[in-house]
Amino acid sequence: MRELDGSDAGGQFLRTALTLSVLENEPVRLEHVRGDRPNPGLANQHLAVLETLAAVTDAEVSGGELDAETVEFEPGRSSTGGLEGGSYAVDIGTAGSVTLLFDALLPLATVLEAPLSVTATGGTDVEWSPPLDYLRQVKLPLLGAHGLVASCEVDRRGFYPNGGGRATLRIAPSSLEPLALERRSELEGVRLYSTESASLADQDVAHRQLEGALERLDLAGADRNVDDGSNEDDQLEVLERQERTAESPSPGSALVIRVDHGTGIAGFDALGERGKPAERVGEDAADAANRFLEGDAPVDRHMGDQLLVFLALAGGRVRIPRVSDHVETSRALLEAFGREIDLERREEGAVVSRSPDPP
After folding, report:
1. Of 112, 162, 197, 333, which sits with the fewest C-beta atoms within 10 Å of its C-beta?
2. Is 305 annotated as a binding residue?
3. Residue 125 CB coordination number (10 Å)
4. Is 348 inside a domain boundary?
């Protein structure tokens, strides 16, 4: 049983360790779970990930309870080494993140023998996690271009504090292609996805968020730092704009901006807060997008963190905007499982890479 220490890490370390345990079909013991958090141990959303992966893989688990700081996980994959798939449901019980649960499941596509469907109830658009539209409109399309077959359907949005959202992730057996995301090529345009709970519809929150973003976005006359051999200043086109009113047990809102370019996709988001004007929500997301446009990385900083597991599985090269603590922690964890990720630092950010495993 591989022993791992989470003293200096948070929930991402736990999720990635459990996912790698399944992929490598290797038992793990995690000590000091979420040790660098003020409230260490398993919270509801971390317990939901543990229980879901245990159900999907028929794993044996020790320490599967709230606040547990030591967990043992032994996956029970079939004799052929694959996962049987099937349909599962999980209720996080709080506004814990549905999208982070789904993130832990996505890499399993590489070892599935049949489709997998997981319906989760919890927070779909909450702090410290990707909003649902980031998953649906940014991450899944980007990974889909590299061979991942997955989709996400939403039944109800769940904002803080009540959660209560419900979404279903469907994954099919997939063969990933090496990630080719080292350079940003010609910019194609932006897409905006603005959502409000039904309780905020009379305040036009979704529309105001979108308008605030469009007013702040730098769509014209700037050096786009693209690798297309052209120095021309072009107007960045608005390819899509969506405003949605959604049922939810809690009032809330979210905005996601997607930037499309020839070799990839980047995403930027902001959530509504009590007392925060809707226009400011849009401006915050636009400010992040503008910072991306001033640089030359092909993916946003959050995606740079999230792609490391897929890079370890498929190989390739990815230019990331910065080397965050999450990147460093994930690299060390992947190395512990024998999947080293090379890092070449640049003046801004770095290139992370790995050679594909032999057939």
Report:
1. 162
2. yes
3. 32
4. no
